[in-house]
Amino acid sequence: MNQPPAKQKAPRPQTSAPGVGLSHWGNALFILPFLICYVLLLVYPVFNGFWLSLNEIDQLSDSSDFVGLANFVQLFSDDIFRGAIRNTFYFIFLTTPAFVALGLVLALALNRPGKTGATLRAIFFGSSVLSVTIVTLVWRLVFMPDRGLLANIMSGLGLTQIAPLASETLALPAIALVTVWWIVGLPMMLFLSALQQVPQDIYEAAALDNASRWRTFVSITLPSIKRTVALVAVIEVILQFQLFGQSQLMTLGGPNNTSRSIVMFIYDAGFKQWALGYSAAAAQVLFALMLVGVAVQMWIARKRDAE
Amino acid sequence: MAGIELLGVKKNFGIVEVIPDLSLSINDGEFVVFLGPSGCGKSTLLRMIAGLETVSGGDIHIGGRSIVALPPGARDVAMVFQHYALYPHMSVHDNMAFGLRNIGMAEQEIERRISEAARMLELQDLLERKPMQMSGGQRQRVAISRAVVKEPGAFLFDEPLSNLDAALRTRTRVELARLHQRLKTTMVFVTHDQIEAMTLATRIVVMNKGRVEQVGTPMEVYHSPATRFVAGFIGSPVMNFLPGPLVDSGNACATLFVANGFELATQIPLSALPPGASLTAGVRAEYLIVDADAPVKAKADVVERLGERTLVYATLADGSFVVAEAPRDCTVNAGETVGLRFDAAHVHLFDESGKAYHAAS
Lengths: 307, 361
Known about the structure:
The complex is a heterodimer. By secondary structure, chain A is mostly helical. Chain A is built from 14 helices and two strands. Chain A has a two-stranded antiparallel ribbon. In chain A, helix 2 crosses helix 14 (about 275-305), helix 3 runs antiparallel to helix 11 and helix 4 (about 115-125) runs antiparallel to helix 8 (about 185-195). The longest helix of chain A is centred in the first third of the chain and has 32 residues, at about 80-110. Chain A starts with about 30 loop residues before the first helix and ends with a helix. Chain B is of the alpha+beta class. Chain B has two domains: about 5-235, P-loop containing nucleotide triphosphate hydrolases (Rossmann fold), CATH 3.40.50; about 240-355, CATH 2.40.50.140. Chain B is about 25% helix and about 35% strand. Chain B contains eight helices and 22 strands. In chain B, helix 5 links the parallel strand 7 and strand 8 (about 185-190). The interface of A and B includes residues 204, 205, 209 and 223 of A.
């Protein structure tokens, strides 16, 4: 009589799609196309590049000799390479603060509803879609000695004409100016989207708290968008480390190598002098510099966040 | 402390007229609640007082001086926002100090005010926290204390309790009432919640479509609504409305033939009513009593037993719905026929323009 009820096997829950929620190796196939591209186009070249930098490569005989760190030792005694590093850092120093400051000023000025704001936003962002060839062509016309726009303005004002691209001190600042003009639209857009995320009622509270415009900017706006400021700075440092097109097309690295960037050095070493190992070593140095630069920035941003 | 005068205030957004012409006087030290449905212009009015919206016409005086040309910070008001509007990157302490530092107040005085407000609103242990590290109720207390430290002439509250859960809302409501008793400062409070209005206000300003429908104490607004809108908006459950023609009952007070079935006597003198008006009777549930002996019969549809009272939702012979109140121990069930007794002293009449007529007291 008092038999325990027979254990009933719980019915398996029926699902309309069998296998949903279960782990299956076949699921990995979905990421396979990405994985193939990622490994072939990124992981393999990174390691291959590092391997190349440790070799002396003769492209004619298709042979290579392992030379260890000899390429790196040679690089650091190469005046042109050291100059290229100096130039690249100087270029970043000129452009990144300009991108942050000018991008923010434009965003603040154009963060308004209405057609005028929308039109100006489109105009400032518009130059970013132009190719480097067109941008440099336009600016070479501006900087052209005697007949260029700059020369005309200078002579119109009764000033001595200057040819920035032919000047050792002005060539790189001129390229920096062109670069900022070309792609200041991107930081502007990033700042605009950040500004529009700041709740309006905080500004209203600040107005009721007697905050002046400057105080509101410093105490409310800037702290609210500091992550975007850090993001823009990191993006621009990474981008400007890779300066190539503008120097190549406007000055060919001259005069006297004063506008030669690291990427130009890598290109010339690899594809003009066919010193592939040497070029790869320079690329490793650039990679390391960018890594350090970005790491330092992230560290500063995080430290500020923690405060 | 300061009284507020609104003199023929107008507000347009483009071609849309939000507030056509509004005048109102708020006395020094009063707790006035702007009450109305969404879109009635109550928040716009508050924001115009604060200086966050421009005035399209008219004038606003605070403490006897015109303030429409002054920036928000110079109007001697402090505002508590619906979404708190705390500065997210500043500590509670700095949120409170920000406005005081902006006017160059001495640090010693700032600290004195902050510690006093923190004590009053029980924030002493939270002063170093950031808003993100606090609950909704705590944030709202910070928002209130940020206003308190300014010691303004008037406090402005824009639906400050609507983001809190029910229990916290009741608690904060009581805290606000205490704060007003303690500070005795003019407070203007915007809400669409009639319980907040009834419990907090010295006077309620009921608004509809940018106009003031009635200004009065909570009991005046409840017992003698000036218009049909006020009668319908204030009170839960909603007042019962029964339209019908006047009948000649032979006495001096109006009697209406309603719901196609019975005569509803009032204590409103016929002489007070406009001749030939089409009238609607209004009676609140607590004055429509379920009574087995009453001659008016209705079918109970739903019976709500709320503990302290029982509400009976019933259908009259002509199909119109009414809500009546039954004694706590009433045993009526849904589907049964009940008798309804109207308390003639509390029946109101409304003409077609919405104007109300009440029993002669």
